[in-house]
Amino acid sequence: MQKGKGQIQLWVEEFHKAKGHLINHSLDNEAMIFRARLIAEEFAELLKAMNLMDPVEIADALGDLEYVINGTAVTFGFPLEAIVKEIHRSNMTKAENVEGKPRKGKLFSPPDILSILKKYWLQIEEYSP
Fold this sequence. Notes:
Elements: H1 7-19, H2 29-52, H3 55-76, H4 80-91, E1 97-98, E2 101-102, H5 113-120, H6 124-127
Helix pairs in contact: 1-3, 2-3
């Protein structure tokens, strides 16, 4: 894939181009609020579908949620596949489950998101800590 992007993000980028939506936009309040509302709407649909125990609606809501999350990555130019890959690497260093949730043990290595952004995200210099 290109520049840390996965296939889904590339499809969503294609949609954004076709519909004139933002791509690689700088971080700003208006765009953030718009994207957050889309994610919240799709998450609410997922909760509703889960409450109804409707597998078709659950699957649809999961797909829509992934689409709007990838859309947020496209909007701001985040390399989502590279970010998720780094989070997965980190998660694999967690210790055994405690009450169903993996815990951070002695061998835990936190995700180095900053290095991913420095490698792939064009705007990192503007937002570097």
